[in-house]
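We modelled the chain as a single entity of 153 amino acids. Its sequence is:
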Amino acid sequence: MMATIDIQSVSQAPCPSSRELVRWAEAALEGKDAELSLRLVDEAEMAKLNLRYRQRSGPTNVLSFPFDAPAEVAPGFLGDVVICAPVVAREAKAQGKAESAHWAHMVVHGILHLRGYDHLTLEEAEEMEIKERQILSSLGYQDPYLIEEIIQS
């Protein structure tokens, strides 16, 4: 597989190793040749991005920025995934799951957005969640949505 993953870690919070991030990203790519960047940030940067691109205040866990290549440019660069380390840590604790499992989910989720998956409609959400479950299972992680359903009940 020819995946090129540029990791930019600018967060002061603890983050997974580059090796883990690459393993999760390659699983999400499912053997596709691709190039992407993973940027690990703190809340201030994520809040700015969330406001600018989604018109929502405050930080979020993950944002994806797919690259829409012009026709004359060879495909390959998928785009950028930005993950907010402090938010991921808080969510993992609140949801009672291992931080590594939640990090893996955020990496997979973000990259699936770059690959064209979305969750704007119920049908899209179901398709994306099935794909996430398959990839996370292949990495040895539990169903992230089952864990959330247990916590919410």
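As a brief sanity check on the tokenised model: The mean pLDDT is 92. The two ends are 41 Å apart (CA to CA).
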